[in-house]
Design brief:
Helices cover 38% and strands 18% of the residues. It is built from ten helices and 14 strands. The longest helix has 19 residues. The N and C termini lie far apart (54 Å).
Amino acid sequence: MFEQQIQIPSAEEILQNQPLPPELARIKRGRDSLAKDVIAGNTDKLLVIVGPCSAHESAPVLEYVRRLGELNEKVKDKLVLVPRIYTNKPRSRGVGYKGMFSQPDPENKENILKGIRTIRDLHIRAIGESGLSAADEMLYPENYAYVEDLLTYIAVGARSSENQMHRLVSSGIELPVGIKNPTGGSLTVMLNSVYAAQSPQVFKYHGWQVATQGNEYAHAVLRGMEDNSGTDIPNFHYETVMRVLEGYGKRTELRHPAVIIDANHSNSGKQFRQQIRIVEEVLQNRLFDADFKRIVKGFMIESFLVEGCQKHDIVFGQSITDPCLGWEDTERLIYEIAEKA
């Protein structure tokens, strides 16, 4: 049984009532072009998607993004920094805090309409105060329409990469969409999803039959895997990346072969400080092999103002979900990436 609680206006109504100002839309278009150029291989810059595991409160996220905007000015010749403003949180067992989209106040009950309005306000302020437009995970494809004018990068998570609706909606997005390997680690599934996202599709979306042209900027993300007993197995190493390159080579119809390395999740076993070592190893491999360098386009890094995590929102700027690097380590790591890019 479905109990009706709050009627949600259409995405068109929400965007009309809470629009992105034209001057900020111009900034976002410029940031979109930079990110697409990285995936397409039109630049040697690296893409770095960095920020908290989950954006649970606006004030610390805005402080983080402001700092990132200042840092971007110092590394923009080598890097394209995209802040993580992840507002949908997947849960392994399907219950618990599901992110700002569902719960704008993590200590209170779900209120999706308030969540949508809170998210739009956060993104608009973030672009205005930092000059950076953000990334988010497309956990629920139907929700993407409520933020489609705000994002520069979209991630499809490990639990969603084999889902047909995620693939279809990704095919209609004109931005980089990073599709992660599934939790079981199949590179074939991941590349099949990239193929589906890059292909034209016809499907039902928000009450319409829609047709898409395919998204040439869809690409692979390696995030590690889990075996049958739940043990984390990393897949950021040289050998796996080269197998992905080989897989792209066998699918000659795929455009812009690209891999983003997710330094956390099963690659780090959620040992957040291991992200530093993982990034450093990947940077070394880029120096070692020109083919590896050509396909690895950047990193995903989980970081916030204060390292670690907490169960309740007490410490300003500390994650309430997975543990993250603190700002000082993040700043040093970004400088290192820029130096070795």
